[in-house]
Design brief:
Blueprint (H helix, E strand, L loop, with lengths): L2 H17 L16 E3 L2 H5 L7 E3 L2 H13 L6 E7 L3 E2 L9 E2 L2 E8 L3
Length: 112
């Protein structure tokens, strides 16, 4: 398996875990000191680093999942990711760095 194929599989597994509602798997895709941040397009374009969600460790991500499962009250929903191919940045270390931009993320609200 090539590095590209391994990274494509990683991104596909990541999206599948979220799409299948297996949120407890989500933190496992990060290192212990991994970061996760959601910044609105408007803030990003304006150079504002403040996000609507920020986790600076796997532990914070695990806490976020626990909160979603136990404390937050929201309409049941799920997602369906349609992914593009990863884009690799010019290597500056021995570890490859890749980004993937979802072609589309479709929220699906539960019907009763």
């Amino acid at each position: 398996m090539t590095v590209r194929e391994a990274i494509e599989d990683l991104f596909a597994d990541y999206a599948e875990a979220i799409d299948n509602g297996e949120l407890e798997r989500w933190p496992g895709f990060f290192t212990a000191d991994g970061e996760y941040q959601i910044i609105t397009r408007e803030s990003h374009d304006a150079g504002l680093p403040i996000g609507i969600l920020y986790c600076d460790s796997r532990g914070m991500m695990e806490d976020r999942v626990r909160a979603l499962r136990t404390a937050n009250i929201y309409e049941p929903h799920s997602y369906r990711h349609i992914l593009g191919r990863p884009r690799f940045e010019a290597p500056t270390t021995a570890s490859p760095r890749a980004r993937i931009f979802p072609y589309s993320v479709l929220p699906r609200m539960a019907t009763r």
